[in-house]
Amino acid sequence: MRGERPAGLCDRRFQSAYIFAAVRPATGEDFCLVLPRVSTGAMNRFLADFAQTVPDNTHAVMVLDGAGWHGARALRVPDNLSLVPLPAYSPELNPVERIWLYLRERYLSHRLHTDYAAVVNACCRAWNALVAETGRIRSLCAYPYLEQVTS
Q: CB neighbours of 31 closer than 8 A, spacing ≥ 6?
């Protein structure tokens, strides 16, 4: 009937998991953690774990949006990382934003999960499906301004 929404699934429970990820747009390399909350503590964990994957004698630069936990005073940035904040209100400059959109559109939206473990598993399956597609990260994150940055 016109003007009415069709009946759909409704679940009033609310449990979330959050995907923290770093990608290297030029190569498609990735690092991902699924964590139970977003906070300075969670970001510290992500940065510490990511820093351990950076090869010796290498310094990684991570571009971040302005989320509060990305630049909190209590944030501990490992010596082999530098964080570069994007200007305020400019998500279009953040290559990872297109990955979040891609994951939501294809794997994470409009799903009901039985419990928190199922939510975490859905996040992990979505990320693994993304990285299994050869070249997908590069195609999603190929921002023209990144080509102008040299090492």
A: 21, 22, 23, 49, 50, 53
Query: pTM score, two decimals?
Result: 0.83
Measure the CA–CA gap between 130 and 8, rounded to whole angstroms: 28
- Domain positions in the chain: 18-140
Instruction: Determine the topology of domain 18-140 in CATH.
Output: Nucleotidyltransferase; domain 5 (3.30.420)
CA distance 123 to 31: 14
User: Residue written as tokens 């294809």?
Assistant: 106
Residues 6+ apart with CB under 8 A from 29: 23, 137
* Model confidence pLDDT, tens digit, residues 81-137: 999 888 888 877 888 889 999 999 999 988 888 899 999 999 999 999 999 999 999
Q: Rounded to whole angstroms, how far apart are CA atoms 132 and 88?
A: 33
Report yes or no: 93 and 145 within 8 Å, Cβ to Cβ.
Answer: yes
End-to-end CA distance of the chain: 59
